Amino acid sequence: MLTTTVRRLSTTFAVAALAGAVLTAPVAVAAPGDAAFSSSAGRLDVDYAGYLAKHDIVYNRPNTNPAYGLTVGNGRTGAMAWQQNGLTMQVSNVDASQQTAFGAGLVNLATTPAMDSGYSTYQQRLSLYDGTLTTKYDSNRTVTVMGQPGSEVMGIHVDDTRGGVSAVTLELSLWDVANLGNSGDVPDITTWRQVSSYADASGAGFSRGQTDAQKFGYTLAATVEGANYSASVVNNSRVRLTITPTSSYTVWFTASTRLNAPGNNSVTQAKNALSAVKSAGYQSTYTAYRNWWHNFWSKSFVQYGGLGGDADYLENVYYLSTYLIAAGGYGNYPYHFINGVFRATGDQTKWSNAYWYWNQRDVYNSFLASNHVDLMNTFNNLYSRNYAALKSYTQTRYGVDGLWVPETMGWDGNARGTVNSDYTKNILSTGYEAAYNMYLQYRYTNDDSYLRNVAYPFIRETAKFYSRMLSVDSNGKYYMANSNAHETYWNVPNAITDLAAVRSIFPIAIQVSQQLGADASLRPEWQRVLDNLVAYPQQNGAYQPHQLPLSQTRNGENVASELIWPYNVTGIGAGDYQTALNTWNSRPFPYGNVWANDAVQAARLGLGDQAFTGMKRMLQQYQNYPNGFTSNTNGVFEYHGVNLSAMNEALLQSYNDKIRVFPAAPANSSFVGKFTLLAKNGFLVSSEREANETKYVGLRSQWGATARVVNPWSGQQVRVRRTSDNTTVLTTTAAEFEFPTASGATYVVERTAKPLTSYATTRLTGSPNQGAKALSGTASTLGLNASGGGLVNDTDVSYDGNWFPTTNRGYGDYNDDTHHSTVVGATATYSFTGTGIQYLSERNGDMGTVDVYLDNALQATVDLHADGARQVQQVVWQKSGLASGQHTFRIVNRSTSVGMIDALRVT
């Protein structure tokens, strides 16, 4: 996690203008009498094209705000698009620079007359299933942004049948690099301030970082297929392609990196890559690109629906988040938790000097269950490739033979971001997390070579490090004398993170060394440590972050809850479950930041309602842009990852080698859950739940491991049936049971009294989304409707001089806070056209009352005071059913306590 305790302060409302009524997510329709499991395929039968279309992000009016730009990527290169002098995109590549500190630049396509002039209908659609961003103006203009899979090339295909188009230009440009700061851990910032350009018969481009000592740097270049063009250099940071207008053409552009180029020559690589894709042609490349995404989505499936539409909204974010990360997750380096390949900030980045493990795990850990272990491998590779460097530095720093991983680690294993910070310099547990995730990669892939050559060496050296860092007291008890309990408690004895790391990784080290026939001499020491390790610190029936008394709090982490997730040493069915539950219930910083994993831990504890409300609360606090992004500068992608992991854990768990389906389903009977997800030991697990009833459990065994299943129907008789020949392999009423499987075989666990065959068969599909969605009681929206409505921009509200931005007073726990006042009579006025309005605010103990007026008539006095914990943003007053036309809304502060305006929403 980041070395800061400063809370996010916001200065503006999120702009998400929606036409007419703000749509809620479509409510899942329950069908408790059918089932979608395909016995032949061993998974749910899903029309992915139809189903994912309901989660497309749709803008029904042009968006001119870069922060709200929709996103498209091919796994390495990503583009964030908005309407500015035509189509403008900020482009970045995950391998372009150290920790993607510096984006590639801007791509702008403009026509005369403008593409967005003289039209009556408009729609921009991010198709998750196809991975494309398509903008349509009437029936005579379509712009499709897509990419070439497995490359660094993206494309803009234009179909423009208008008459009278006199000019088309494509410009590549760069931000002012004169004052570029060194936020990316680069050895020589000068090379990133130097820009060179070219223009010739092959196209045009510019380059940066060409002499970067670490072989980073890139060339942003473009060419055209299907139309004649001329290339020119406008200046060092701007090149242009002047295109002869035609009815159909494709602009190909690339952010080619030195890192991935032969001889580290990104200019030659850019020219070759553009030539190759141009030769392949748009149609062939477009088909290959869509097939790549179709194959990606086919690996798993999740439905998390109902609950008045809110669960459907969370599901929409699940698929959008998966797309965002995968669109930049296939480079040589990880998708950085705050930079990724999508941002609208030029070269202005934050936390770019390294990868924080705490933050990166939020982004990546869900991809094991969603059957995209190759994405997790990208994250793990950052650490495994630096094995030798980390071993060497551990000897230098600690004088021990073992392996320590810096919490804040550079791309090459450097620890500068860790050892120069009191927050991180004494964190010892990061190496355990890296080693454990490598072990999980093995458990989800059965890759023996990976276990032997990559995961086990890291596990062994991490265990050796802890063996040498622990102290022994006079009673022979092992303890940790001094370390950080992550960033929050510095230089404390018996940090619970270290004790949990030992209790997790030492049994794995013993078991794997036996499995591989390696390091027999180390096992007795590891076992001796396990047998004599001090107990976790406790107080009042809950685990404590370190040995009492508690030290000064330096950050807002719930350290003791780490045992639940991701350390995975406790959870449902564990002997210390009640203590773990008490620990979570008494955690000091509930949902304290954009990286907070409370909802994941709630799911791991089987708290279905809390997991649901936790996922919703994270979006409520942070997802305040209609493209799914946030204005929070402390993080960008972590809350996306939290949503992914929490939902997976609510539907399927196998962390302790036992398969549990719907362990944390919401109690509401309207909840509809269906999934095909991957469990440890290679089981592709499917199940469906409607009206509080789990229908069956389907298991596809990928390599013939023994299956261990927790009975979803406590006390009822179940049978395990092999679907290939309908043989019953087990009948039992046990709470837990196991059975052998054959590689490639499919099994169904079903109630004897209500087998799978009693359900009608169905195929899961959906209808394409056509507008914006909203999460009830929050400012979170996805998409834009045609005109009017939506969340109101701060600048549209008229505040008198007694209102102040929250940044001036120190508010900002929730990033959509905008103005406050402690002056009686302070007035804020807004005029709008619509049939309703909602007033959103948080409530807290220091707040007072405000009067609400509509069309100059007093409507209500709204009490914003709330005892106890701060209540996050909610609708505190609303009015609907107004006559169409213009209305005036006014808020008047009525006490010297705080009056707060978070957001207004027109409906």
From TrEMBL:
Key words of the record: Signal
Originating species: Amycolatopsis heterodermiae
InterPro entries: 6-hairpin_glycosidase_sf, 6hp_glycosidase-like_sf, GH95_cat, Glyco_hydro_b
Name of the featured protein: Glycosyl hydrolase family 95 catalytic domain-containing protein
Endpoints of the signal sequence: 1-30
Pfam families the record matches: Glyco_hydro_95_cat (PF22124)
Ranges of residues in domain Glycosyl hydrolase family 95 catalytic: 316-631
